[in-house]
Amino acid sequence: MATGSRRVLGLLLGSLLIGFGGLAVPKAALAVYAIAQYGEPKYPADFKHFNYVNPDAPRGGTLVLANPNRLTSFDKFNPFTQRGNPAPGLGYMFESLTTGSLDEVSTAYGLLADDISIAPDGLSVTFHINPKARFSNGDSVTAEDVKYSFDTLKSPQAAPQYAVYFGQISRAVMLDPLTIRFDFKERTREMPFIAGAIPVFSHKWGMKPDGSHVPFDQLAFQKPIASGPYLIEQYDNGRTITFKRDPAYWGNALPVRVGTFNFERITYKLYSDGVARLEAFKAGEYDALVEYVARNWVRRDIGKRFDNGELIKREFRNHNGTGMQGFFINLRRPIFQDVRVRQALDLAFDFQWLNRQLFFNQYTRTDSFFANTDLQATGKPGGGELAILSPLRAQLDPAVFGDMVKQPDTDPPGSLRANLIKARELLADAGWTYRDGALRNAKGQPFVFEILDDSASGSSMEPVVATYQRNLQKLGIVANFRTVDFALIQKRLDAFDFDMTSLRMPDVQIPGTEQDSRFGSKSADQQGSDNMNGLKSPAVDSIVHTLLGAQTRDQLLDATHALDRVLMHGYYVIPHWYTASHRVAYRNTLAYPATLPLYYVAEDWITSTWWFNPPAAASSFASAAAAAK
Q: Closest Cα to residue 257, out of 610, 611, 608?
């Protein structure tokens, strides 16, 4: 079970930055095809394709998919602005100067750029643009377009998180028509990767016949002019959209593109809720489903099409960090500002019961912002962590210097009753006592709050919330559950108008600037930012700054462990659960490469590397599957 991901840095940077991290700055500026954090890139300069693709995959056919996230409708083709809901799949249209691979955590290869030069002092990076790079209108991609894209994304016309994310890039300088340099405010290992991941679009996007422009933040259904492999072919009523492979796509022969984007068309159909979406898949209305609901996977992803082999279920292992999924607590609300209150709310969440009764024991409790990686803090802080934490001791809870937080457990010898007794004690210490039929503060105000979720995922969260509500009621706390349409919840989240809400913070393999956007004080009051908790902590700001300045892998680990330790001791999120596998159901006419990537988003993996089987092969597969049963 999962609740969908919050739109972080628009919709694109998560995929553009897969595997990116910092790098060792060379002693002298040198033009190269790729940059790596430590050592050398996995693939040599003359590599032909990534190992996890099929270079001989046939191209053709129409892949039909459903909502890839909470989105149930769309009203624009511009994914970079705050207002409105962008259509799914727009990432297929936009490319960046570099791209990552899915089997490395810290390498960037040239995409629009054909070489990369890092200054000896690490304060700038220069990219030369491939002369073959073209936009969908046939124009060459130029340094002017790259600068225009960067300047626009940092401007007030774009969603505010871009200005934060690109904040350490002071300027973009055109050196010639195909060469651009990015200057940094300070040297960090991450900056060349961030510059390389800037989405690039033509300065002609939104240009009127008279040469004037539609303001960037008013672009709606003006089709983007970008350099990616797909174009918008048609759309209907904000509920369906079809992308067609650009027959003149410039990048077909690039090693980073060989074996990728094999479907002639990709169509998205947006369904109003999870039940309608699941039934539509079982009826054959679309081709692949990434299942996030454990109950569905076991009990509902079944039927005659599964029995006869037309539909296949498989779990695909991944090595992704889990990110953080949970109930995010809004510190802007006075009732949540005491850490003892937040810890009490955590104690009332009974994961073990949920895992047994609802999840078929398919999940592990999330106990870190970086779970399933070596970035996760464990035990007591080591010497490197203490060097970061000790100067901040006066600002930190003393518990930070002890054992890492362990999530409450109700398996014997633990129990929900024991956890609730401890929660009651913490609430009493914070000034909340039970009287007159409710938990009340010194002013007599009852402890009442709202858990907000969108209607598309609300049905899957309802039994989880109902169980949590029942436990909170034993403490005298009233938690009201409200579901609203995706468009409304997005507006409310952008305005931080919620008490508690279920979210998933996307994972990162190498933490960097996104941590500042998520937890930095300067983002807390900036509507539309990713600091959902409203966290304002000089200590966290200091740790994030140390993280961004890490010069070795060990320094990065120490800083990330320190950050994880402080965040978990702050109880800003009531963590949910995770699995290290992607659950995918798909039509037997689809095929995928024999070698799986290591770090990947299932939906993106399907659209970027899968292909259609020839009909004869699909028929043979179905017959074999039926015989096996």
A: 608
